[in-house]
Structures are given as C-alpha cells and as structure tokens.
C-alpha cells in the first residue's frame, strides 16, 4: 500500500494516539478495579475518574504536536491521580512526554520542563500524604521511594530525548560539513576543467598573435596563416566553453562531447605543433584505462604542452604515457629554455596537475632540467578506481 500521500511523521502521531488510548483504558481500570495490594481504591464519581484518566493519557497522544502544553497537563493529571488514590505506576506518562520535550525543545526550555515535572511529582506525593491518607501514604519512606521511582522515570525519559537530540544535531553537522566539502570539491573540479579547457586554446592564440604581430610587415603570408590558426583555435575554445557552461546551467549532459582521453593525445600533439612545439608521442598500455583516469592523463599532458607552448616554443617535446601495471606514468620533457612558473608558486596549471595526480593516489614532480629544458613527471594509481 502506497502511503506517500500522508503527511510526514503522521505514523508516529498515530502510534502516540494508540498509546494514549491504552493508557486511558489503564487508568479507567484503576478507577473500577478493587485493589489487592493493600492500597486505597478510588471511590469518587465516575466522571471525575474519566477526566483524570484523560488528563494523564491525552498528553501522550499530542506530545509531538504540543510538547510543552502536554507536559503541563500530564503533570497536573498525575497529581490529581495521586490525590484521588488512582495512582498505580511511577508517572510513566510524564516520562513519555518528557522524551519529546527534550527532543524538540531547546535545552534550556526542556530543562525547565524537567524541573517542573520533578517538582510537580514530588509536591503531589508529599501533599498527597496529608490529603489522601491511607496505606500508600502511611510511611514517609514509602513516599520517598515512590518519588525516587518517579524521578528516575522522568530523568530517563528526558535524558533519552536529549541524547537523541544531540545525536541528530551531530548528524546534521556532519551532513552540513560533507555538503560544504562536496561543494568545495565541485568548485575545484569545475575550476580545473575550465582552466584546462580554456588555457590551452588561449595560450596557442597568444603565441600565434605574437607571431602575427612580429611578422605582419615583413611576411604578411605568415601573419595570415597565424590569424587563421587564431580563428580556428578561438572557435574551438569557445565551443568547448559553451558546452561546459551549458552543462553548468542546465545539468543536461546529453549533448556534451565524450570526455577526452589517451586516444585524443595525438590530436593534442598536432595542435601543439601549430604553436611551434614538435611533439614525439609514445603511449603504452593505455587502451583499457578507466574513463576518469584517462581524462586526468589527457589534462596533465594538455597542461604540460600548454606550458611548453607558452614558455619554450619553438621547442621539441617528448611525451610518454605508460599504463602498464597498477600505475599510469606520464613524462613530458622539452628542450626549451626551462623558464616556467616556479613549482611552489601560484601557477594554477601546476597546482591543477598536482591535484589531479593526488586524486588518484599519485604524485607529480615538475622542474627545470640541469642541461636546460623542463620535465613534468606524474604517476596515477589505477587501483583506486574513483577519486578518494
């Protein structure tokens, strides 16, 4: 049976109502049954017994709706039961209601409710010793013992509710912290993707624009070729950027091109050659890499070649991607001047590459070579499966 149309929590209220009906019947039994334990029996009017039974039971049924009002009514009803010699239990109704008070109300307010319940039950028991004398109230030690039992019930009810409240608050804090961490990770991932998508195209455009500006007067044909490269590269970059922004706005990935991987490195090398970098590409055992790891491999090589185009062109560069074993090894080495953003500096490209490697249990080392040039060396573990 589908009960999704019911309001949230209505089944709990229904259980409380059922418990209240049972408790009402129990107190009615106290008014009509003869006692066999030596305690005085109720001898008042029937309507009053029903009223007291309702005062003790009804708060249990509405404790989730009006917890503070419920505790006031149940304490008053329990006190009336003491005075009318109807009491046969240690104020269990008060404990049930205090559980919800501690669970729903702020600690200060629920603490005051606990103090009110404890004081009210004690006052009822001690004054009942004089107002309703009989076997139950003959000995003050019996009063103290009964009060201790009533207080135990109250504190257990309140303490249980307060413990559940604290646990839920901690769970909420953990959930909020996890959500904030997930949001930060998503922002970082998007920043990396935007940087990697845009930086490569913009770097090639900047290099070709400098070439066109330098040779425009002496060699117009070469300047025209550079402008053609700028036009084509800018269109490709804008198309990639629009696709990514479209996904961010709509969340629809149906029209998003497949994520690039090792199979796209050859085309990437050709684009780098347009920027004046001749690339020698070697790949081993990369056909079965998981898609996410393949994307990270592509982005690390892309950023490395972008840096070569930006800082070392014209140059020659070797790219090795080795997927044998449990790790993927990436090495990008060039013979350029080696002038780069410092490894420990603020370059977003190197930071992004290192973050991609760390996501898959690897590391990244980047720095100038002793004889000139620059090398980027990265490893990614294929045993992690997903970023950890």
UniProtKB/TrEMBL annotation:
Query: Which terms does the record give in the GO molecular function aspect?
Result: kinase activity
Quote the InterPro entries the UniProt record gives: HATPase_C_sf (IPR036890), HATPase_dom (IPR003594), Sensor_HK_TwoCompSys (IPR050482), Sig_transdc_His_kin_sub3_dim/P (IPR011712)
Q: Which reaction does it catalyse?
A: ATP + protein L-histidine = ADP + protein N-phospho-L-histidine
List the transmembrane segments: 12-32, 44-60, 90-105, 112-131, 143-164
Keyword annotations of the record: ATP-binding, Kinase, Membrane, Nucleotide-binding, Phosphoprotein, Transferase, Transmembrane, Transmembrane helix, Two-component regulatory system
Q: Which SUPFAM superfamilies match?
A: ATPase domain of HSP90 chaperone/DNA topoisomerase II/histidine kinase (SSF55874)
Q: Which residues form the Signal transduction histidine kinase subgroup 3 dimerisation and phosphoacceptor domain?
A: 186-251
EC number(s) of the enzyme?
A: 2.7.13.3
> Which major enzyme category is it?
transferase
Please give one Pfam family short name. Answer: HisKA_3
UniProt domain Histidine kinase/HSP90-like ATPase: residue ranges: 296-382
Entry annotated with the keyword Transmembrane: yes
Which PANTHER family does this one have? NITRATE/NITRITE SENSOR PROTEIN NARX-RELATED, NITRATE_NITRITE SENSOR PROTEIN NARQ
Q: What is this protein called?
A: histidine kinase
Q: What is the lineage of its organism?
A: Bacteria, Bacillati, Actinomycetota, Actinomycetes, Pseudonocardiales
């Amino acid at each position: 049976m589908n009960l999704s149309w019911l309001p949230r929590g209505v089944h709990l209220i229904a259980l409380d109502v059922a418990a209240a009906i049972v408790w009402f019947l129990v107190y009615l039994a106290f008014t009509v049954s003869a006692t066999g334990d030596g305690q005085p029996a109720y001898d008042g009017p029937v309507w009053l017994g029903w009223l007291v039974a309702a005062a003790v039971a009804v708060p249990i049924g509405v404790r989730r709706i009006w917890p503070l009002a419920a505790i006031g009514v149940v304490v008053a009803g329990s006190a009336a039961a003491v005075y009318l010699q109807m009491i046969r239990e240690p104020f269990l109704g008060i404990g049930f209601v205090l559980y919800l008070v501690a669970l729903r109300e702020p600690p200060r307010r629920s603490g005051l409710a606990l103090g009110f319940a404890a004081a009210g039950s004690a006052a009822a028991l001690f004054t009942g010793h004089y107002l309703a004398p009989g076997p139950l109230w003959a000995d003050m030690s019996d009063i103290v013992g009964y009060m201790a039992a009533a207080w135990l019930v109250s504190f257990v009810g309140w303490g249980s509710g307060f413990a559940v409240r604290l646990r839920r608050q901690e769970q909420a804090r953990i959930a909020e912290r996890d959500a904030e961490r997930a949001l930060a990770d998503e922002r970082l991932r998007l920043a990396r993707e935007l940087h990697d998508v845009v930086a490569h195209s913009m770097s090639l455009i900047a290099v070709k624009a400098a070439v066109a500006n330098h040779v425009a007067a002496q060699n117009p044909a070469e300047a025209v070729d550079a402008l053609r490269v700028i036009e084509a590269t800018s269109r490709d970059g804008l198309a990639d950027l629009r696709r990514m922004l479209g996904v961010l706005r709509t969340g629809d990935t149906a029209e998003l091109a497949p994520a690039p991987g090792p199979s796209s490195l050859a085309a990437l090398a050709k684009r780098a050659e347009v920027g004046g970098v001749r690339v020698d590409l070697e790949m081993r055992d990369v056909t079965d890499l998981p898609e996410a790891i393949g994307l990270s491999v592509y982005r690390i090589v892309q950023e490395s070649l972008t840096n070569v185009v930006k800082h070392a062109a014209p140059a020659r560069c070797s790219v090795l991607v080795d997927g044998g074993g449990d790790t993927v090894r990436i090495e990008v080495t060039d013979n350029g001047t080696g002038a780069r953003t410092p490894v420990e500096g603020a370059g977003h490209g190197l930071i992004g590459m290192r973050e991609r490697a760390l996501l898959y249990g690897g590391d990244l080392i980047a720095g100038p070579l002793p004889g000139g040039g620059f090398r980027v060396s990265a490893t990614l573990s294929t045993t992690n499966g997903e970023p950890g």
